[in-house]
């Protein structure tokens, strides 16, 4: 149906009421345009996703070098050891802390005296551990029973080669 200049609004409204296909033509055009826009959006997003994935495809690969020199060398170095580090110590047990400390101190004093006789200076000796721990005996009848104490004392010693003090 075509409308002319002299047709009134009432006639046009009548057309839409009588001929629903007049209304559907506008909806069809709008839906077609929306469908085309959706297809473009899907293609655009798909392309962006593919391009972003391609960026990470070569991660970890070395760049291609047109001119390069590659050298592989094996070497060996030998040296005479000139410093040795040794850790020595004593562990003593006794009924009381005082007894265990006394025994441990006597042993460590003898050890340090021997090391000094060997030419090791006081600066090359360092205490690395000194602990006092209770010792228990566990039984099912009476549980844990204190039986004494343990003293641990350790010294780290640096021994230098005579030519390299």
Low-confidence sequence ranges? none
Q: Please give the alpha-carbon distance between the first and last residues.
A: 115 Å
Strand order of the largest sheet: 1-3-2
Question: CATH superfamily name of the largest domain?
Answer: Protein of unknown function (DUF541), domain 2
Number of domains: 2
Counted beta strands: 3
Shape: elongated
Textual characterization of the structure:
With 165 residues, this protein is an alpha+beta fold. It folds into two domains: 46 residues; 78 residues, Protein of unknown function (DUF541), domain 2 (Alpha-Beta Plaits), CATH 3.30.70.2970. Helices cover 40% and strands 27% of the residues. It contains three helices and three strands, in the order ααβαββ. It has a three-stranded antiparallel beta sheet with strand order 1-3-2, with helices on one face. A hairpin with a 3-residue loop joins strand 2 and strand 3. It starts with 8 loop residues before the first helix and ends in a 5-residue tail after the last strand. The relative contact order is 0.12.
Keywords:
165 residues; 3 strands; Alpha-Beta Plaits; elongated; 27% strand; alpha+beta; 2 domains; three-stranded antiparallel sheet
């Amino acid at each position: 149906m075509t409308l002319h200049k002299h047709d009134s609004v009432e006639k046009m409204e009548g057309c839409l009421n009588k001929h629903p296909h007049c209304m559907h033509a506008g909806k069809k055009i709008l839906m077609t345009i929306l469908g085309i826009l959706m297809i473009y959006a899907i293609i655009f997003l798909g392309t962006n996703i593919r391009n972003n994935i391609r960026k990470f495809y070569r991660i970890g690969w070395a760049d291609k070098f047109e001119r390069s020199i590659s050298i592989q060398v094996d070497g060996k170095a030998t040296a005479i050891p000139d410093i040795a580090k040794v850790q020595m110590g004593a562990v003593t047990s006794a009924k009381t802390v005082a007894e265990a400390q006394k025994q441990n101190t006597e042993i460590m004093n003898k050890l340090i005296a021997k090391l000094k006789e060997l030419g090791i200076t006081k600066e090359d000796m360092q205490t690395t551990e000194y602990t006092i721990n209770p010792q228990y005996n566990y039984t099912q009848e009476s549980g844990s029973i204190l039986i004494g104490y343990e003293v641990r004392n350790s010294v780290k010693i640096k021994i230098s080669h005579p030519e390299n003090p």
